[in-house]
């Protein structure tokens, strides 16, 4: 009697599973409007990305991190290079600038951070910058961290 009950439960479970799959397939075929919107938006490159962002209700991020070595300074414009790629940024007048300073006492090296000024940034400095993309598609830096130059 236990074997018969087990077989009935297995058959009933298979039937319920098949009914669920059928209902899912039918409901997907009846409401293709969202998938059409996504598929149509992907075919129009730039316009498609904008439409896709609207469909997903997301907001584009207008900030970027810039990491590398300073290769040129011209006024408030700085060129930073990393792995054979370079980017030119403009440091905002109110940008926060910090220096990491390493000191060694009795063989123990410690790092500390201190406030800096724009003049602390030199060609060859290793930097990490927080920048935002402006309306004219340039990068404006709001924070700079200057790391110690590693001696090779």
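^ Assign residues to that structure.
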């Amino acid at each position: 009697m236990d074997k018969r009950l087990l077989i009935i439960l297995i058959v009933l479970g298979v039937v319920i599973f098949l009914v669920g799959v059928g209902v899912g397939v039918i409901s997907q075929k009846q409401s293709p409007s969202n998938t059409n919107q996504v598929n149509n938006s992907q075919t129009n490159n730039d316009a498609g990305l904008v439409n896709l962002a609207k469909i997903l209700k997301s907001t584009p991020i207008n900030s970027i991190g810039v990491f590398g070595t300073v290769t040129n300074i011209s006024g408030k414009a700085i060129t930073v290079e990393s792995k054979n790629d370079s980017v030119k940024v403009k440091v905002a007048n109110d940008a926060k600038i910090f220096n990491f300073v390493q000191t060694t006492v009795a063989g123990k090296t410690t790092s500390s951070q201190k406030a800096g000024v724009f003049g602390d940034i030199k060609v060859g400095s290793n930097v990490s910058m927080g920048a935002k993309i402006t309306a004219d598609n340039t990068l404006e830096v709001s924070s700079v961290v200057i790391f110690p130059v590693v001696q090779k």
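The first helix runs from residue 2 to 30.
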